[in-house]
Please model this.
Amino acid sequence: MVDIHDYDIQRIEHEILWKYESPKNDYSDCDCLLSLRKDMINKRVLAHQEDLLQDIIAFNDALTEALREMYDRAHRIWDFIKDNKDFGEEPEVTAKCFLSYEYPEQHPVQGEDRQDLWNALCDSGWNHLYDDGVTLLTLRLPRDDEPFYSYIGMDCPPPNWNEGLDLELTKNLHLTSAFHNLFDHMEFAITDFIYVRKFQTEINIEINKSI
Model:
């Protein structure tokens, strides 16, 4: 396995941790630090994608299962409230899915500072697009009442969101749009999230009711 924690990366992570723990909490250049770290790690590991393949598959499967559970639970809540006048005339259910709050146990790099680094990576003040979770769009019911496979982007040919990866190596993986969102649009390096197997969901009911 390629070294994903060499001296250069350690120095950047040290700077990230120092800034994150600073009482000033200045976010002005934090996304630049995360972006630089992401590019450095990805350049190393994407040259050896075959070493990551099984973890990419396992993560994508676990993510799909978590999104399915969130999607089903949000629809059950919506079915319960949609005709209940106690929730107003136009209630709305929103659902978001996040990576586990805990640093991945399976990650090959472990250490006392890893949870603090994970907190920084998952801070939406730093990793701006992560405020809405892992998906391209927040699930909003009834506005986004579409089939599950449409919601995760698996209804368009070919059903595989593998831009930026080895297209031949990953052509049959059926990666979801949420995988693409994490990999391409956010400041996570690929090795930050492919070892995650647990997720957190957030479901809210918005009530519009005159008093």
